[in-house]
Structures are given as C-alpha cells and as structure tokens.
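so my prof wants the structure for this chain in the tokens format not the other one, which i didnt know existed until like an hour ago. anyway here's the sequence
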Amino acid sequence: MEKLSLEDIKEKLSVSFKFKGNNELEYVDNFKSILDADEHSIVWCSPDKENKLELISQTAAKLIICDNTVQLNESLLEEKGFIIVENPKLAFTRLMRNVFPVISETGVHKSATIHPDAEIASSAYVGPNTYVGKCKIGKNTVLQGNNYVYDNTTIGDEVVIEAGAILGAEGFGMAKTDDGKWERLPHIGGLEIHDHVEVGAATTIDRGTLDNTIIGAGTKISKSVHISHNVQIGKDCLITGCVAIAGSTTIGDNVWISPNATLLNKLKIGNNVFISVGATVTQDIKDNFQALGRKILPKG
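here's what i got, hopefully its the right format
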C-alpha cells in the first residue's frame, strides 16, 4: 500500500464526517485492527464496544475512525486524529474499497464451458472450469472458477458467485409408491438470483419444482450454505456459513441467519428477523422477532 496523507484519506472517504484532533499526522500506509495497529495504521472503533475510550487510548494508531459517542479528552486530541462518522465500520469499509479497488476481469475464461444459447453480458466474467447452461447472466457479474450453473437460471447485475457454487440443480423432491419405493419428482422450475447478490464458495441453491427459487436483491450468502427448492428469500438478507434452508420456506427482507442454523420446510419467516447460531427453526416467525435455539421471542 502506498503512503497516504491525511488529506488523501479525507478525499477517499465516501461518507459524511467531521475531523477532530491532530491534523499534522505524518502518513498512513496500512489498515489494521485497533489492537494490532502501528503508528502509521488507520483503524476503526466499534460503537458497540463498552471500552471504546480504553481501546482508542491504547492503540498505537494515530488515525481512528469512530462515532461521536466517544468522549475524547484533550490529551487524545493532541496526540491523534479522529474521523467522526455515524457508522465507523461502513466508513472503514468504503475507504478500503477506494484504496484497494477491485479490478474485475470480463469475458469467458478459455477453460469454461458455455451453452450456445446462454446470454452473458459483455461486462460479466466467467471463471476457469465453470459450466454455464442455458442461462442469463447480467452486467458486471462475476462467476469465479469451478461453478456449475444449470439451465433456466437467471443471474442479475453485479452479482458475485464465489468458487465451487452449484446453482439451479434439481431439488430433492420424491414421491413414494404403494410398495414403498421412492420416485424422483421432476423439477421444471428455475432459479432467479437478483441484482447485487453474493453467493459464497461451495454453496448450493436448488431450482424450483414448478415455480422458481428466488434470491432477492442485495442478499449476501456465505459459504457452504444449502438453499432447497422453491425457497423465496427477500431483499438485503444476511445468510452466514453452513445454514440449511429446507424447501418452500419463504423469508422476508433484512433477515439475519447465523451460522449452522437450520430452517424446516414450508415456513414463513417475516421481515427483520434474527436467527441465532445453531438455531433449529420449526415454526413461522413474525416480523421483528428472533429465534434463539428453539425459542421464538420479540427482538429486544
């Protein structure tokens, strides 16, 4: 990372801010956590920390992004510079993205296999050893290597699919015969992944049985997640690692599902719901409620 002056940092911030403290800082040449910083680091301090002032006092960093709840004394203001914002993590995130912009490739890697009827935007990228069936892929979307995208999958604009995802495979639908044998139910639905979605490595999302499985705009899905057939997920949800969502469950907007949670099939999960680590959800959840283990409670 090149050396950045305080003015360089200010210019690269993509949020409203106020500056307090020492404005004669030498330079910044790294981003670090607040405990691992050196004198040329820029760090951020979480508003949720109870010991914010202690962390800010102890860090070696001379430039700190924080909110206005920190009571800064004269000694700190003389020694360090403070970028005061409403959301320190967001400010730090955007600053990093501006300092380290992602340079995306476009086109199709020579080792990828593409169905002749696939529609892929010219600004999209399909990585090595990826297979794309009869699908539509939108603008500025990135499919990393070793993905498999089945027919009848639609992927929107500015989507990121990490390596090893399987999208649009046939769901696990079976019909039982009179003599106790299982017969596979054909899945003629598709998969819709809307704009600005991210899908983590080794995640699988099945296509619908008759209608489409849907992932709403802005939803972020971590690694090793399984989303079954006919699931419908709303906008701006956060689905973390190793979550399993059984078939035909509907999830609202702004839902947070923590690692290793399991959701039964055919549930209705409302908007702004929180599901805790390892929760087993076997009943519907209303808007603004939370699942803690097997308990469903109003969000505090």
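also thought this was worth mentioning. The first strand starts at residue 18 and ends at 21.
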